[in-house]
Amino acid sequence: xxxxxxxxxxxxxxxxxxxxxxxxxxxxxxxxxxxxxxxxxxxxxxxxxxxxxxxxxxxxxxxxxxxxxxxxxxxxxxxxxxxxxxxxxxxxxxxxxxxxxxxxxxxxxxxxxxxxxxxxxxxxxxxxxxxxxxxxxxxxxxxxxxxxxxxxxxxxxxxxxxxxxxxxxxxxxxxxxxxxxxxxxxxxxxxxxxxxxxxxxxxxxxxxxxxxxxxxxxxxxxxxxxxxxxxxxxxxxxxxxxxxxxxxxxxxxxxxxxxxxxxxxxxxxxxxxxxxxxxxxxxxxxxxxxxxxxxxxxxxxxxxxxxxxxxxxxxxxxxxxxxxxxxxx
Length: 329
Ligand SMILES: NC(=O)c1ccc[n+]([C@@H]2O[C@H](COP(=O)([O-])OP(=O)(O)OC[C@H]3O[C@@H](n4cnc5c(N)ncnc54)[C@H](O)[C@@H]3O)[C@@H](O)[C@H]2O)c1
Ligand SMILES: [Zn+2]
Prior knowledge:
By secondary structure, the chain is of the alpha/beta class. The protein contains eleven helices and eleven strands.
């Protein structure tokens, strides 16, 4: 088992992470699952006495306040108090909604993330952000609040649908490009099926964890993690409005391809990134830059009509707060 220390909690990665689960101090425990993690993942957890299971329906559309009320209602009915614990067993949706519900129930009870998707492991469970969607606005209501522990068991990936695994990989590629050229070389020299997940997840989390420790509240350096996401979010919205939603990972890969065009990196590096992404992933057609402008100008990170990009300085290094007007684009 490998350990990464974050600000005030640890992240354990490995096949025997569950022996790190010390639950003796909790009076009651709830395990939050969706129908898929209930079926495929719950059996891997040790049997916990005093625990109940709360199942919500899977999917981004359920990451809303109605689902929170459903969860809080069950906690209340079962007399959960300040000494209770919530374990979030699932992907980013479970982590986000569980983290949010626990953070404000009784002004905050402890929670633990047990991520079961690749996105959950390398991204959503790391960094202390949680929240829900509100009136079609993604992650509009939420908090910064850390879990007590993150337990990552790569075995969960065995049952994950293939495209979830594949496009979850986009955040690992992003982490390599913004901060670790060695990891980038390692990605390039391995085929997608030959990775040691434990090692890869560890190296990827190390990168995000270091950045968020420097800037927990997203006021500066943390923006590096937005590389590929300014165009990426615009592309996601474009396809959503067309009623042909695409995966976040697909949009981020396309966003990174567009944003390397704005980055001041060598032609050789540009070609290397393009080749890697285009030969490993089958992506939807890229919308025209013109069609994306109306989504870009709504981006939360903009300042007075200027669009905020995080751009590569070289492979393994990234700058943030690069403001471009729509004419410059
Ligand atoms: N808080 C953050 O910092 C942060 C960062 C990145 C993403 N997110 C959020 O994460 C969410 C996306 O997370 P996601 O990609 O994990 O999607 P998800 O949670 O919707 O999970 C994807 C699907 O896989 C199923 N599933 C999960 N684990 C499984 C397993 N081991 N075996 C079989 N099926 C399994 C789920 O039931 C679901 O149907 C978004 O809401 C996003 O906003 C948050
Ligand atoms: Zn992302």
